[in-house]
């Protein structure tokens, strides 16, 4: 789909996957006008396919587009385009229990612009790929390191939207962490340097007794759709969920820590290293709370339990 600045997107068409052409002075290449989304399609036992809350991705893209001075597809256009793309790639949706089809919608300033300004033209496209587990650990606990020098977001910046540059900003710390054997990086706020923010591509939760705490949405972390869903699932399971400033020190006496995201689903954290000190959680890192929430969420996403929340969209 294409659209001019200030205009509306017209209906797009299916195209075979391949390279795309861009003007060297395209807004996305020069000034980072790019946003993406990520969602998954699961195959049910009866062969039908389930999408999980695609309208939430559409809304988040629209909010991000507003911040990045870009036009965005309407919620209907977005959801219809996702459905059409998934149905056209139905054969790539893995069988039940064997993974999912990852769906990547991309919005970019494709028009040429030399002086700093919003691009005159925008493109929206979607590509898909079958995927398995995100971390090489599979569903085993991951090991995080707290980063206290580099930050991924600043107040008033773009950390709260899914813009491409945020991901370039985390590559250095993430690569260094992986080279040392960690799974990923846990970021702190850049003002007080003591409150938890999020991991490079997922949100974080800290469990103490019956209370589950997660950093509040305040513009510097991504409002994860899995985060929002897990908060509802956890409350429905009788947990008390607090969205607030979570000091890094709370990691020291937490019962469990886990991450959430479309790609990582619910990943238990086995250990966190902070200023050279390593804290480990639970028996081999597998916490009962993360297990319980993982089980409810995945069974819902795969159509194995009743979708009382009305979160899934079924395609046949
Ligand atoms: N934080 C960041 C920085 C992310 O990239 C993601 C993945 N989209 C998340 C959190 C989790 O968001 P969601 O649950 O919507 O996938």
UniProtKB/TrEMBL annotation:
GO biological process terms on file: amino acid biosynthetic process; branched-chain amino acid biosynthetic process
Domain of life: Eukaryota
This enzyme's EC code(s): 2.6.1.42
Protein's UniProt name: Branched-chain-amino-acid aminotransferase
Residues represented out of the complete protein: 60 to 375 of 375
Organism (species): Gossypium harknessii
GO cellular component, as recorded: chloroplast
Co-factor requirement: pyridoxal 5'-phosphate
Modified residues (N6-(pyridoxal phosphate)lysine): 162
GO MF annotation terms: branched-chain-amino-acid transaminase activity
Coiled-coil regions listed in the entry: none
Catalytic activity: L-valine + 2-oxoglutarate = 3-methyl-2-oxobutanoate + L-glutamate; L-leucine + 2-oxoglutarate = 4-methyl-2-oxopentanoate + L-glutamate; L-isoleucine + 2-oxoglutarate = (S)-3-methyl-2-oxopentanoate + L-glutamate
Family (UniProt): Belongs to the class-IV pyridoxal-phosphate-dependent aminotransferase family.
Keywords linked to the UniProt accession: Amino-acid biosynthesis, Aminotransferase, Branched-chain amino acid biosynthesis, Pyridoxal phosphate, Transferase
